[in-house]
Amino acid sequence: LMILVFIAGCPSKKDIDDDNYYSSIYADQKESVRRCLEEKEGFYCNVAANFFMDRKKFKDEEKIVLVDKDEFLKWIKLGCEYKYSKSCIFLWAAFGPEAIDEIETNIDMSYKYAVKACDLYNESVESKYIRSYDIDNKAAAIDMCLMLSTYFYALGSSKYENPRKAIDLASIACEHGFRGACSKLSLRYKDIGDIELYNAWSEFACIYAVETESCLALVRKHHNEGNKEETDFFLKRLDSTFVGSDFILNYYWAQI
Questions:
Q1: By the 8 A CB rule, do 188 and 154 touch?
Q2: What are the strands, taking DSSP E only, across the chain?
């Protein structure tokens, strides 16, 4: 039913072929609109949607402002329906708290689009050649899986709490090399009380994924337990992460 509502609100092919249909607001978007509707390519639906939004600066804060909310939602929803993960991700954010003034917060809708975006990580590319935005689309979907794991499924995170799903989705992101994902995976094991796997994944995240969060946790752990050799080892690993400055390392030491 929802799909029919989205499509019913869009121009027909007859409209597309009629140049009188296009006002100046559509003039530069005709090809994107055509490819969205005729070829069902979500990327181009997303391009069409972007024409109805703007970014404006209020004091030191940049905010998204919708030029036409109904038109924007029409095209961005089609982008998501036609498997462009970034459209789904934008809808996840848009229905979240305090995202866009013109769109009322709806956590259930936000969750729905988060799931849709994550589910797209496993979509095969049907085109004869890999386009740059196909790769980008898959990466964005995996990143959303990690967000879903952290903000919806992790223990105590929301009414959708599901620690096992949180582990599964964090594993996907960790396997694909997303920064911070292996550290988050270790924390999801800690959530369910599996300290052995928490420690194992913390060490993996620090040593092999070179992730600051896990290195810092291990430095704290071994420092508090009086294990000087292990403390020095993980401190060196911490120094090799993307932080890597004396100022930041001193800041971390102050927290131990």
A1: yes
A2: 53-58, 61-66
